[in-house]
Amino acid sequence: MARTTFKLPKSSNPTLSKNDVQSLIAKKAYELYEKRGRKAGYALQDWIEAEKIVRGKLPK
C-alpha cells in the first residue's frame, strides 16, 4: 500500500460529506498516478487504492 501525504481537514465538525470524501479520494488517486510517473492505464487501480487509504483514515 502506498504511503499517503494528505491530511484530513481539521474542523469542529469531524463529519465529512460524501463529496468531501470523493474529493479526497480523487486527490489521492491523482497523487498515486503522479508517483508512478503519469503512466496511463491504471486509473481503476489508483482509485481503489486511494479509496482504501482515505477510508482507512476516516473516523469510524
Concise account of the structure shown:
The chain is mostly helical. It has helices spanning 18-35, 43-57.
Uncertain residue segments: none
Instruction: Indicate the proportion of strand residues.
Output: under 5%
Described by the principal axes of the CA atoms, the overall outline is elongated
Termini Cα gap: 20 Å
Residue share in helix: 55-70%
- Class computed from helices, strands and strand pairing: mainly alpha
**Total DSSP helices:** 2
Order of helices and strands: HH
Spatial extent as radius of gyration: 12 Å
Rounded average pLDDT: 86
Structure description:
The two termini are about 20 Å apart. The protein is about 55% helix and about 0% strand. It has a domain of about 40 residues. The longest helix has 18 residues. It is built from 2 helices and no strands. The radius of gyration is 12 Å and the shape is elongated. The protein is mainly alpha-helical.
Q: In terms of topology, how is this protein built?
A:
Elements: H1 18-35, H2 43-57
